[in-house]
Amino acid sequence: MPDARTDGTARAYELLEPLVQAATVRVHAAPDGYAPPGTGPTWGSGFFIAPGWVLTCAHVVGEGGAAVRLAGRELGITFSSGPRTTGTVTGRVECVLPERLEERRPARRALWDLPDLALVRVLAPVSHACVRLTDRARPRLDEVAYFGCTEDLGTPEITGRTTRLRGTAAGGAALRLGDDDEIEPGMSGGPVVDLANGEVVGVVKARRHTGGGGLAVSVIQLRTLPLAATGQVGLYRRVMQAHDLYHYDQHVSDLDTRRTWTDLHGELGALGAARAATAGPAPLPGSGAPYTAAGRLTPAERTTLCGLLAELPPPPSSEAVRALVEAARGEEPDPALPAPLSWRDGLGMLHDPPGGAGEAAAMLRYATDVSVADFREPPAPGADEELWDWVRATAERLWRPLRRELGERRDQGLAERQRRRRARAAYGAPGPQQHGRPGGPLPQGPSVLLEAWAHGWEDVYDWRVSVLAGPAHPGRVTPVGSGVRATRAGLPEAVRDALAEAFRRCDTHEAAAVLEVAVAPELFGLPVDTWVLTGRVPLGVQRPVVLRHPAGGDGAHPADADAAHRRADRWARVQAGPLLDERADCARGRPRSPSPAWLDGLADNTVPVHCRTADAEPTRGSLYAVRDAGYGVAVTRRPPADPGESCAPFHRGLREELTEAGRGAPLPVRLQALRARAHGADPDAYWANGMALVWDDPARALPEEEPLQGDL
Predict the structure, then answer these.
(1) pLDDT at 294 over 50
(2) What is the C-alpha separation between 290 and 167, in angstroms, rounded?
(3) How would you label 455-487 residue by residue, b for 16+ Cβ within 10 Å and e otherwise?
(4) Where are the beta strands (DSSP E) in 214-322?
(5) DSSP readout, 54-114?
(6) Residue 323 confidence (pLDDT) above 70
(7) pTM of the full structure
(8) Helix 261-279 crosses helix 299-310 at what angle (to 10 degrees)?
(9) How confident is the model over 274-290, as pLDDT tens digits?
(10) What are the beta bridge partners of residue 581?
């Protein structure tokens, strides 16, 4: 180790090395039945993050197989099966990140797209060690060690080097490794370990061509694993639950006397305290006295808490976790952080709370709130009570008055949970279904907002993706991502990652979040419902997609009381039903432009219908006129390619759909069902191809400002 390393860093490396090496693996071709197991060229490295699960880089599993699909590919995993012994087992690639690497891979020796991760399932039950992953969304820029497979002496072996994190890149997705030492071929996919906290923070990705150092991928990017289908537990939550239960079981087991990661964290804490005492009065982060109101949980307490949280059903949504974090932390979590998908992710957002508040107290408040949360399904008998008993006992040991505060917090939480359950029971089941089609209203929680603005007269667009909190938090809009000068054809790719992150934040166990597309009426022809984010299922089949008029451009200023009342009355009448349809831009197939007087004279429960191209007259003018007349619900569509095709089947089918719906509330969900039927090749739903719903809910206010128009 270089002389520049402190004694404390050297000792931390010595403590960590055996545990990390035991969990790090060599990745190579799958055993073929002829060659001895574990032989053949090394593709790269990886490491066990949970029983049966190996994390590595996508470019490692893609080695030597440019024409082979990555997901489903089998490969060999050679791992430590005991002191000075190894074993080899077959693994199968479950998924790669990003998913688009399946269709578009870089040229040989070129960098693969971030996050460049692959999750591999081991195909046989084997006994192995697992690393401890960080829960911090932003790692500290401190001393680290990285490990991987090298062949310094002609034989593959797992070795480690030390360096320092020099910063982040790509919005925190990548970590910059210092040039203190060289990353050798074969180390890609290996773990990067924070020496101060004893946690894996990254995955080795690439080395510099001109010398030492390189890039690693933050392990927090695991949260971008493919989204689960509604009603299912996602892969990320399953793997992280197994990870936390592994370390909890190791901690409480009496069958093994070998050092665990929890033991190691206790030794690192003592080492940090000794370093702080030697350095002077300023303590190192994380070295505060654990049994004070301003202290931190001990490593044993953290491991136990994570294990107890893992025993519970997953949270209903990412926003549910963020809400509990905000209540425990005392401020809204950083909106730039990746969406928290598990209860443990919420703990990671409670480090170093603001105003000098105690980290331990914040985590215990959070755990108390989790114990009375509305779970996706009933927890195992006694699991929530066991969590609460642990919180109460730990609070008394930390600071006795805290126990009383948490007891009152739990009583309030239980009462609120009971109130919500009574309200749901009184409200009853979702709306009626007719002919087997969904009839329920939209969920009232957070939605995803996509805004796009034409860039002057050019055919390029600025865009922004946000989370719209909805009626629970009126006016709260959390930005997720934005960009400028995207072409119309390139817009789906430009917004892909931001939309995926926003959906992770908003989707719940019961329903996929609504996508609200706020664009000028001439852009109502954007085929957003056909965009494919993950897999091969279009967005409009996965979730409700609705169009909205952008804020600040609606002819009638919000201060205009008459206009506001007119919009509110028409919205309420459409929601109550029954629904009437009226052709706005055609008369028996011939184009027409509706006059303001004609629109004003229609019944308030009318849904204006458009069947022609939105970016050309008369439809463009009609859409503006319908908006100015206060109609919050309207229908438009992208016409078929054949201009001679009659629009009569569309109008006939839509009238039947509106009649069956009866009222406005179920329309977005029913349109999603129509898209799903058409996607599934139901000829009775083909008339709805290209149909879009304008849905300007007055209870969901849009942000007023537009994005910057690039550099001046």
Answers:
(1) no
(2) 29
(3) eeeeeebbbbbbbbbbeeeeeebbbbbbbbebe
(4) 214-218
(5) EEE-HHHHTTT-TTS-STT-EEEEEEEEETTEEEEEEEEEEEEESGGGGT--PPTTSPPPT
(6) yes
(7) 0.85
(8) 140
(9) 665 565 544 433 333 33
(10) 607
